[in-house]
Amino acid sequence: MSTTLRIVEVLGAQLSLGGRCAGTADGPRAIRAAGLSKRLGAMRDLGDLVARDAARLPGRDPGAAVCTEVERFSLELRAAVEAILARGALPCILGGDHSLGAATQAAVGRVARRRGWAPPGLIWIDAHTDSNTMATTPSGNLHGMMLAAIHGLEVPPFRRVVEGGLRDPRRTVYVGARDIDEEERAIVENLGCRVITPEEIRQRGPLAVAEEALVLAGAADGRLSVSFDLDCLDPSIAPGVDCHVDGGLAWPETATMLTRIGQHAGVLAVEIVEVNPSMDREGRTARLAVEAAGLLCGCTACARLAPSI
Question: Least packed by Cβ within 10 Å: which of 45, 94, 109, 298?
């Protein structure tokens, strides 16, 4: 696999329609304000894409207005990420709620398909597996469904978004997952994804887990993408998220994993999502998001060795 130097291109996604907390749309602003440009060094900041307001219905069905706007926004974001990849840069997408992942990951899959590559693997660092469908979701939150769509299951708001960009679930590795709905767990098991809990990380050690994740996700040709949801961390250190789940990761073990993953030459795209500054305390979560972005984008280097695209 040939390598070239790639600059990091940062794109914000002001989106909160996939969850129930409007403050998440301000995540990109908070991450930048916490020192992102200094941490990444030389980078290109492309600004933000902004979702339009849409009224959500109560209950499990978010309603046509929300679904239509999430689809529109996702198609716009997908095109933007494909353009970044076409320029040979490393996309670093700032969220915003995690429903944006359908667009980012589909863009990576579509570019791979056009280049004749195997579908890249995926390392999903998150308290959740985000694999519900409209039939199984207990909440109706679209940020808990986008990976079901990316893996080929029917989720209407993401149907057009994932066209041509499906990913291989056998090369998807969940890291830090601990809050999985019962029917969702069956979906993940049937798909053949690997789920690594915080307990397993502590038993085996974070470096061993990172190595396994890279082997599984990069199995075909080393190419993969990474999505980092701040709710993978324990709420005691990262309070600024929408979905607080106790028993999360500590920062030292997380930093060990992110450092190793960020050193991998096959990383094609990075997401840093679910920062909600309205829930944060003294900017703690936003600062951790900055550090996560720095590690996953190759530490402090302004450019990185990566597969030529």
Answer: 45
Residue of 71, 126, 181, 271 with catalytic role: 126
Which DSSP symbol is given to 145?
T
- The one catalytic residue among 9, 82, 229, 253: 229
Q: One digit per residue, pLDDT tens: the chain, 309 residues? A: 444 567 999 999 999 999 989 999 999 999 999 999 999 998 999 999 999 999 998 888 899 999 999 999 999 999 999 999 999 999 999 999 999 999 999 999 999 999 999 999 999 999 999 999 999 999 999 999 999 999 999 999 999 999 999 999 999 999 999 999 999 999 999 999 999 999 999 999 999 999 999 999 999 799 999 999 999 999 999 999 999 999 999 999 999 999 999 999 999 999 999 999 999 999 999 999 999 999 999 853 433 434 444
Helix (H, G, I), strand (E, B) or coil at 139: coil
In angstroms, the CA 76 to CA 81 distance is 9
CATH hierarchy code of domain 7-307: 3.40.800.10
Confidence (pTM): 0.95
Determine which one of 48, 130, 271, 291 is catalytic.
130
Q: Is there a catalytic annotation at residue 128?
A: yes
Residue 244 falls in the annotated catalytic set: no
Question: Catalytic: 151?
Answer: no
264 tagged catalytic: no
User: Does residue 97 carry a catalytic annotation?
Assistant: no
Active site annotation includes 229: yes
* Cα–Cα distance, 149 to 143 (Å, whole number): 11
Spot the catalytic one: 26, 48, 184, 231.
Answer: 231
Q: Are 235 and 244 in contact (CB under 8 A)?
A: yes
